[in-house]
């Protein structure tokens, strides 16, 4: 009788007959459960049944298992194995090959329990939000809210979770290498959300500045800055230089493939390929960024301030040159301003990262200025706050201020169309003002906090039409 009731419930919900044994038992389960063969988020079945449109139950699990029942091929559910992308250093559990063979022979899910109950503490943990990209540490509503906010702020069409399920369409089939890496190609447009979310977490100021760009260049700016984030975090995520060189080689090969219209199956690379096709970006600047990041993998301090400026010129300034190309600006004065602003940004970034590097017993500040004031690297590692230590920070911060003032000295010659590319100066001015307010104590806790008024300052700068 109980089994008959489950079948009647499945027929009432419009489920295919092949799905009734695995999907319907979840209806009676009092705990938060999900299907064994589909790593969907906890509570999906219960949430969709309680919605005013019960037909949405045939969204995720029904589409996957129905496709499996029709074809019996393991490729029809390969997306289910790839939905949760493992984090760095975490291995992804895959289904044994013999299970796939049994499923292919029977053309139905294998026998055994069809649901797994999760404890209450694990509910809503790492929930995919419809684009195929996980959000770690977010709750059931928080993950969807953060991604929807990033999409709405980025000029992307906001949509609720059920609407996103309908917009995703058929699940793509990844290759064997993609399955082993735990990555699957997102649907068209999903790379933009992934890049926007990556920027919001890793480069919040760049994310805000990218939102102020014209709509036709915004998604390309997300891809460009996400590419920079991917390269920048290589140095902090490796323990051996050989590993970093391998990752740099991957991105160098990815750039070559992008300009051959064959991008790798990686979300940032796909978004970058679309940006290159849309705006015809120069390959030279991408190569310079990768080469300079690769040379910077050595854990050694800059010998002088000129070496730090050269690094900033080949990374941050090159990023601004590409942004100007996206905006369609070809002007020598705009390039001159981008050069100085990029150098100032590189110097400020080095200052802001000093407390973090000191916790790892590393100091990258220019050695010539440290020797001029008689300061050793051990003084920074011990977080000393003597006058000579603050004098070193003052000299380096003054150099960044000089570059900003020089970039503004010929702002009247720079086309107004190029101003959105230079709005990052708002964040640089804010940091230089705050470090001067604490008497150049680089270890002051207030310098490590995010300024909640930064969006307002950016809006005022755009209203004044200046950088």
TrEMBL record:
Organism domain of life: Eukaryota
Alphabetically ordered keywords of this record: Membrane, Mitochondrion, Mitochondrion inner membrane, Transit peptide
Function in brief: Involved in the assembly of mitochondrial NADH:ubiquinone oxidoreductase complex (complex I) at early stages. May play a role in the biogenesis of complex I subunit MT-ND1.
Family: Belongs to the NDUFAF6 family.
Protein name: NADH dehydrogenase (ubiquinone) complex I, assembly factor 6
Cellular compartments annotated: Mitochondrion inner membrane
InterPro entries linked to this entry: Isoprenoid_synthase_dom_sf (IPR008949), Squ/phyt_synthse (IPR002060)
Main location per the UniProt record: mitochondrion
SUPFAM superfamilies, alphabetized: Terpenoid synthases
Database matches in Pfam families: SQS_PSY
A single cellular component GO annotation: mitochondrial inner membrane
Compositionally biased region (Low complexity): 116-129
PANTHER family: NADH DEHYDROGENASE (UBIQUINONE) COMPLEX I, ASSEMBLY FACTOR 6 (PTHR21181:SF13), PTHR21181
GO biological process, one term: mitochondrial respiratory chain complex I assembly
Region named Disordered: 45-129
């Amino acid at each position: 009788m109980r089994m008959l009731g489950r079948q009647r419930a499945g027929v009432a919900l419009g489920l295919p007959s092949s799905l009734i044994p695995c999907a319907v038992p979840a209806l009676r389960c009092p705990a938060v459960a999900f299907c064994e063969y589909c790593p969907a988020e906890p509570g999906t079945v219960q949430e969709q049944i309680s919605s005013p449109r019960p037909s949405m139950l045939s969204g995720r699990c029904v589409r996957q298992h129905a496709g499996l029942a029709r074809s019996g091929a393991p490729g029809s559910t390969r997306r289910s194995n790839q939905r949760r992308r493992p984090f760095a250093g975490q291995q992804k559990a895959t289904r044994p090959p013999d299970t796939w063979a049994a499923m292919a022979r029977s053309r139905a899910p294998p026998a055994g329990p069809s649901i797994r109950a999760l404890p209450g503490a694990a509910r809503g943990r790492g929930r995919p939000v419809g684009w195929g990209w996980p959000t770690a540490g977010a709750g059931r509503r928080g993950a969807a809210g953060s991604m929807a906010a990033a999409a709405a702020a980025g000029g992307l069409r906001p949509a609720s979770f059920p609407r996103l399920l309908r917009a995703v369409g058929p699940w793509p089939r990844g290759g064997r290498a993609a399955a082993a890496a735990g990555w699957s190609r997102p649907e068209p447009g999903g790379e933009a959300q992934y890049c926007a979310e990556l920027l919001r977490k890793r480069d919040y100021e760049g994310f805000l500045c990218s939102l102020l760009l014209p709509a036709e260049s915004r998604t390309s700016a997300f891809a460009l800055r996400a590419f920079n984030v991917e390269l920048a975090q290589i140095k902090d995520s490796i323990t051996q230089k050989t590993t970093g060189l391998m990752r740099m080689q991957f991105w160098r090969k990815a750039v070559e493939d992008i300009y051959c219209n064959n991008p790798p199956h990686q979300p940032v690379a796909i978004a970058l390929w679309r940006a290159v096709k849309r705006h015809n970006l120069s390959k030279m600047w991408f190569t310079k960024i990768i080469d300079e990041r690769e040379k910077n993998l050595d854990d050694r301090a800059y010998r002088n301030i000129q070496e730090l400026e050269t690094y900033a010129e080949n990374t941050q300034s090159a990023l601004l040159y590409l942004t100007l190309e996206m905006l369609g600006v070809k002007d020598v004065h705009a390039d001159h301003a981008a050069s100085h602003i990029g150098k100032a940004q590189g110097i400020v970034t080095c200052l802001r990262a000093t407390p973090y590097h000191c916790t790892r017993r590393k100091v990258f500040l220019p050695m010539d200025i440290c020797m001029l004031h008689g300061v050793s690297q051990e003084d920074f590692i011990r977080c000393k706050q003597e006058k000579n230590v603050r004098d070193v920070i003052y000299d380096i911060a003054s150099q960044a201020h000089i570059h900003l003032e020089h970039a503004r000295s010929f702002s009247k010659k720079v086309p107004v169309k190029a101003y959105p590319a230079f709005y990052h100066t708002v964040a640089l001015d804010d940091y230089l003002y705050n470090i001067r307010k604490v008497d150049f104590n680089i270890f002051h806790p207030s310098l490590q906090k995010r300024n909640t008024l930064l969006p307002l300052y950016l809006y005022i700068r755009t209203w004044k039409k200046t950088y």
